[in-house]
């Protein structure tokens, strides 16, 4: 693994390896001393062109727990606001000796560009690009699902197991959601059955090609599928022009059709879990009752994010460096 | 699971892999059993009984060896329970040679319920070679607690130390050349008990 750009790049064996490694990383995080010396002397740059709280903090925590040096870069307050291009920014980072670049960008494909342009030698990790991909979120979701729903509800050892036969329903703003795209691909790779539920206006063009079923009726899906996990997506109002952006008539109407409220919560099977990638719009796609219910694993998703990102950084940076030819000092 | 620069990594060999056909058997199942029994007695003798003992096996093959030692200790010493004695200690994330090898799989670290603070920890590994694995183990141990003392048991000591580390309990000293390869096979991971030497100019 040289870069992590898309959930599609992960085959079943690699994905399971990341999840297993994340399991061992998570075990170290319950110790009194959480820091490991594994990536000492390596430099990880967090390059964030778009606002983010949990992803940036999560990557920063993961890198620091592995003893890497972390440089945080956000577009606000940097030369990017003076009009510097991605290329010049990347070359500046290269000059500083970044071993890995974690990038979030509002343009789909920016991480791919960075990885394949030769602007930087470091490993590139996609931390969310436009409406395209967010692979580490998909990995942490898969990890959370595996922990809860595989191996007798987390009591047995899940090392090496996939998500075979589990039913996952992803509800909401699929059109703008990179989380949904990455999750559909990864969960499918791991053997889970994915159903997307959204109002017709928020279903992307070309969805027929995705390895998932599509429905417009949440209540019918919850009743027919009896899902093991329900993942609510955030309604991305910042990507819509006005309040509902013409995608739906009003927030109340969206909530009524596609929000997870107490009634729908009680319709779920006893073992089913409720997930949300955050940040939540309480009262819009998820009610406070559902978000705070014992079957919601939303806070745990954040904790698992650190373990999964530690695993990704370990797998990208700890092994043999084949492509990074260092120039010997004369 | 000791390794030196340029030498193959003994412990990294996946379970069930057949060693090369020209391998010489240096220890058979009976000899391995006798060596472990002797080491078990030496551990009890040195520590004046089994109180406060913890055996930590280093994955992959140190782990079953630690289990077997714990069973022998429990048989000899009244009042000892094998399950309270034994754990495993993964050292992958503390190694100094991570950048020289393909990415290693991380093993499990499991401590007995009593933890390791104030205990006498006996590290158990299959092959003692450069000593770098043990250095990593000592670092890993200090992140987990503060044992009263740390001792080292190895089934095979093949020499060629690169660090000032020695074993307290050795199953067999095997003088080898660095071009030779020592493989430890255990019933738990490989289906049979044997120590083999292969390769080298002989």
Walk me through this protein's architecture.
The complex is a heterodimer of chains A (330) and B (202). Chain A is α/β, with parallel strands linked by helices. Chain A has helices at residues 12-28, 54-65, 86-95, 110-116, 135-149, 151-154, 178-189, 218-225, 251-258, 262-266, 288-291, 298-317; strands at 43-48, 69-74, 100-105, 123-129, 167-171, 193-197, 213-215, 229-232, 273-275. A 5-stranded parallel beta sheet of chain A has the order 7-6-5-8-9, sandwiched between helices. A 4-stranded parallel beta sheet of chain A has the order 2-1-3-4, sandwiched between helices. In chain A, α1 (12-28) packs across α12, α2 (54-65) packs across α12 and α5 packs across α7. The radius of gyration of chain A is 20 Å and the shape is globular. Mean pLDDT of chain A is 90; it is low at 322-330. Chain B is an alpha/beta fold. Chain B has a single domain (29-199), classed as Rossmann fold. Helices cover 27% and strands 23% of the residues of chain B. In chain B, the strands form 2 sheets. Chain B has a 5-stranded parallel beta sheet, sandwiched between helices. A 3-stranded antiparallel beta sheet of chain B has the order 1-8-7. In chain B, α1 packs across α2 (62-76). The longest helix of chain B is centred in the first third of the chain and has 18 residues, at 29-46. The radius of gyration of chain B is 16 Å and the shape is globular. The two termini of chain B are 24 Å apart. Mean pLDDT of chain B is 88; it is low at 1-13. The A-B interface holds A 1, 17, 20-21, 24-25, 27-28, 31, 33, 35-38, 66, 314-315, 318-321 and B 90, 93-94, 98-109, 139, 143-144.
The SSE string of chain A, one letter per element, is HEHEHEHEHHEHEEHEHHEHH
Q: Distance between termini of chain B?
A: 24 Å
Strand content of chain B: 15-25%
**Average pLDDT across residues of chain B?**
88
N/C terminus separation of chain A: 31 Å
CATH topology of chain B: Rossmann fold
Largest interface: A-B, 21 and 18 residues
- What is the average per-residue confidence, as pLDDT of chain A, rounded to a whole number? 90
- Find the CATH superfamily of the largest domain in chain A: Aspartate/ornithine carbamoyltransferase
Number of helices of chain A: 12
Looking at CATH, which topology of the largest domain in chain A would you report?
Answer: Rossmann fold
* Percent range of helical residues of chain B: 25-40%
